[in-house]
Amino acid sequence: xxxxxxxxxxxxxxxxxxxxxxxxxxxxxxxxxxxxxxxxxxxxxxxxxxxxxxxxxxxxxxxxxxxxxxxxxxxxxxxxxxxxxxxxxxxxxxxxxxxxxxxxxxxxxxxxxxxxxxxxxxxxxxxxxxxxxxxxxxxxxxxxxxxxxxxxxxxxxxxxxxxxxxxxxxxxxxxxxxxxxxxxxxxxxxxxxxxxxxxxxxxxxxxxxxxxxxxxxxxxxxxxx
Length: 225
Hints:
The protein is of the alpha+beta class and about 220 residues long.
């Protein structure tokens, strides 16, 4: 039921965004970044509900992001909300190079304690490269989800279509705010102690405030897996 509600809101806001965009100045659908893989270009991210939301990325409702590096090459990762909710990730299983992944379907698996949760891909295409540094040090995804903690790159023959299905700008900020509010409703005690005093930035490991038996159902709910 939660997934259906999420998809309903997602479709509604995409429709609103479409009609708004008909009256706006046309902008390029994809933003091109340097082909260097070591870090996402640094912009001052918006802070929404305690979580960083960089403006130069597009987001899947399952809390993964996509960045176009060329017309068909897309780098992807998990967003700040996902990294903080995951917390003490112990290992990450990434797909093989050359493997075809589909938008909205399993892209990788995160492991912590005795739990495993999948994350879905924001893009469709063939895996071009994976972040070997992340395999060796999974905590990179927690420390720097938009930079050194990226997950993989994808050769996407129809990247433009995939990007149209993602959230950006006001919709991305709304979705992050909605996710933060939903987490607070579900785990009020966790979120009460989760925000730092210096500007309301969510602490790096929200999972320390979430009972172990509740973490996996929450992660699956928010990651749409």
